[in-house]
Amino acid sequence: MSRPPLARERVLDAFQAILIDDGERTATLAATAEAAGVSKGGLLYHFASRDDLVTGMLERLEALAQEDLTLMASAEEGEVAYFIRTSVMEGDDLDRALIAAARLAQAGFPTAAEMLRQVREAWAAALRPHVRDETALNLLMLVSDGLYYNNALGRVDAETGGLAGPVPTGDDMTALIELVRRATV
Amino acid sequence: MSRPPLARERVLDAFQAILIDDGERTATLAATAEAAGVSKGGLLYHFASRDDLVTGMLERLEALAQEDLTLMASAEEGEVAYFIRTSVMEGDDLDRALIAAARLAQAGFPTAAEMLRQVREAWAAALRPHVRDETALNLLMLVSDGLYYNNALGRVDAETGGLAGPVPTGDDMTALIELVRRATV
DNA sequence: GTCTATATAGCGATAGAC
DNA sequence: GTCTATCGCTATATAGAC
Description:
The structure is a homodimer.
Chain A: H1 6-22, H2 29-36, H3 40-46, H4 50-73, H5 79-87, H6 93-106, H7 110-127, H8 134-153, E1 155-156, E2 163-164, H9 170-184
Antiparallel strand pairs in A: 1-2
Helix pairs in contact in A: 1-2, 1-6, 2-3, 4-6, 4-7, 6-7, 6-8, 8-9
The first copy, chain A, binds a DNA duplex through residues 5, 7, 28-30, 38-46, 48-50.
């Protein structure tokens, strides 16, 4: 649990950024190394293979998701409100890790798909006691999935650094959250 | 508008199938050619480049989406019910074209992401007059997106040929549809 | 319209110096 | 711990026979 080498984290950040901005095909070892400011050999000292790089990224996602579950459990506004609110993508570390993992999953990495399922299931389990029934839970999870999916297809907005997609913002989002809350809690 | 060569369609089918089953990276020209029963050279007679293959696939998606809009407009059960019901993935031609396009979009093909946005917008426009307000439309679209997203991450089920994911089925799905309908229409 | 053969380029990974 | 150099493989695409 001691802090990992700085270069290692920078490589992981770079890999994730390229995955999000340009897709799995562009996230080569050379491109990742250059973006991280190390050589290909330097990268391969920290991650013995490309699969190893993927594993490192997924482990970081798992840790971030765990943190989020803790925050959700102690949220003053209640678990459900917290979950809906944070399903709106704001470009934080967890959002970025989820989008990057989705790219890998769709590129054919089964471990990424598995991790995403696992994280989703953990969220569902945490929310289950706080919604009226299983149907409401399904609705809640699917709306959240839909928000992530649309953002995953959107481009990164150069202005805000956030992800721009055909997803409601501002007052529209507030109204949506209220509608979902009424239908599920 | 006369019917296209048979080999061309077979190549498109093969490309789509590999995209869905194994991801974008595995859908190489060689693998596609073999699955279609032609040589690499034969494939490249019909599609001058890999990008051309992608374009051909997206054009087919556009045509299938257009057909679906026509069916939706004349559905006896009403547009909204038709839309929710057919958001459940059953492995038909449109479903497969959408999943394959999603794979390409996440692999970094901007034209695929663009086409998906366009198709989604066409659906939204067709549904808008039949839901109570814009918030309801957002909810409806996001649930549909969520269903597709989960299925896109799931594996193809060897038994049914359908796509298996963490998505409600049977009675659970009927209940979900009813809940969404009540919240939107 | 379909084939084989080949050119060219880029990727992941290894070896070994520093 | 980080580098350069290089190997081996595979991918896209071209050329030209049939």
